[in-house]
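Input.
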Amino acid sequence: MALLQIDNLTVEFETASGWFRAVDGVSISVENGEVLAIVGESGSGKSVAMLAVMGLLPWTAKITADRMLFEGRDIQNISGAERRKLIGKDISMIFQEPIASLNPCFTVGFQIEEVLRIHLGLDKKARRERAIELFRQVGLPNPEERLNHFPHQMSGGQCQRVMIAIAIACDPKLLIADEPTTALDVTIQKQILDLLMSLQAKNGMGLIMITHDMGVVAETADRVVVQYKGKKMEEADVLSLFENPKSNYTRALLAALPESATGDRLTTVSEFFDSAPESVETRA
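Output.
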């Protein structure tokens, strides 16, 4: 049984000109201990699909799926109270903008301890000890002191580490990382990716890595889903995807990598891919 199984997910938003379909019939699954990368350019529906799983889209969004199961349990039709027990404990998410995702009015210590209080029911002393342990685990120096800092007193990389600590606080079975290195410089990007992969291996959790960076995909993923304009274009194990891409869109993404450059400039996706993508092709 898959850890997460989503079949034929569709997400639509109402606009002035009618309903816009941001996710169009996407199906994905993640196994325990597996790293699944969802890759595609901005606007391809990667984040929206996962926010639908988390129940974090506006109530006006129209969300349908043939199946949306977590450990065999239907999470599409659960109550708000049931979802609050699940999200943040068994399923967690790291968001794109760490500073924007943290509450500026509370210390980072308060924010991580709140998760521990709500989901694990720890007392004040146990919450503080666990928070210090988590900050140390994600590589934050002087964790006892950091607990008293507000988000604006920390760098982007430090805030991202705080977000990771909050996300793993309850030892989730599934972690969704939405462009976790986008706002960080190259050195910090490598540190954050290494940290995520280390935590994933140590805890044996399923990990969904949302990214537009094919280099991140090659470095982290077991299996890859490629999305374009809300549709799944291709699914394959990471080696097959890079050695023998089936979709024209996947070939376009790979052709736009710096190491694929021939001459003085890169080939853009639009230059490589000037016709409509072919239908979905899925390989084991």
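The chain has one domain: 33-59+79-271.
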